[in-house]
Amino acid sequence: MSTLISEEYRRMQEELHRNPNYGVASVQYAPIVAQVLEQVRPEELLDYGAGKGRLGETLRTLMPNAPRIRHYDPARPEWSATPEPAPFVACIDVLEHIEPELIDNVLDDLQRVTLGHGVFTVHTGPAVKLLSDGRNAHLIQQPPAWWLPKFLDRFDLVVFQRMPQGFWIVVQHAPDLAPAPDSGKAAGPLKRVLNSLTGS
User: Fold this and answer.
1) Cα angle at 146 between 161 and 138, to 5 degrees?
2) Rg of the Cα trace of the chain?
């Protein structure tokens, strides 16, 4: 399996997670995830980069029949095992924190585990928090036009929604798409999404 996180950064994240206010942003996105879950009704959800597991806790309060929830987070020893694929994957407040040289590995792994639908969020600007080495906690600060080709290489895009601080998407497993290097190109009708952002 490709490297998803360096050991040094994993230790740094493990230390950050001891802060009760770190890794809890997924709560604000729980209503969006719940809305998509109500439409597709999977039996199981994988919370990829689960932090403190607050997304699952909040979904159980919002949904009378919430799906089974599994967690994956390399900075939480109890949730660090390689995750098995799931019919629904939520990746909330995660991708902007990934080491830039490993983002394609992580996106390939998201493709691997997403059997059906996924809801992913991306913050495109700086975080308030800094890492212990002085770097901004958002290691990747890139606009949607940088991110979307990476998603379109790996998934069918169902929904794209801008937010003041970034965007969220709903994706669907695309069986004919193999993990590929970032080509910067999107095939088919989804290319218009990129064109609207880049003006091309």
Assistant:
1) 85
2) 16
The position carrying tokens 């994957």 is 89
pLDDT tens-digit readout, 62-89:
999 999 999 999 999 999 999 999 999 9
- What confidence category does residue 20 fall into, taking pLDDT thresholds of 50, 70 and 90? low
Yes or no: say if 36 and 119 are a contact pair by the CB < 8 Å rule.
yes
CA atoms of 165 and 29, how far apart (whole Å): 13
Q: Judge whether 4 and 106 are in contact, CB under 8 Å.
A: yes
Q: What are the φ/ψ torsions at residue 172 (nearest 5 degrees)?
A: -130, 145
Q: Provide the pLDDT for residue 24.
A: 62
At residue 86, φ and ψ (nearest 5 deg) are: -140, 155
Q: Are 180 and 155 in contact (CB under 8 A)?
A: no
Are 121 and 168 spatial neighbours (Cβ–Cβ below 8 Å)? yes
What does pTM read for this prediction?
Answer: 0.86
Distance from first CA to last CA of the chain, Å, rounded?
A: 37
What residue spans of the chain are helical by DSSP H? 7-16, 30-40, 54-62, 103-113, 144-152, 191-198
Token pair of 102, please? Answer: 């490993």
Q: Show the beta-strand stretches assigned E in the chain.
A: 44-48, 68-72, 86-91, 114-123, 155-163, 166-173
CB 118 within 8 A of CB 89: yes
Cβ burial of 179 (10 Å; 0-12, 13-18, 19+) is middle
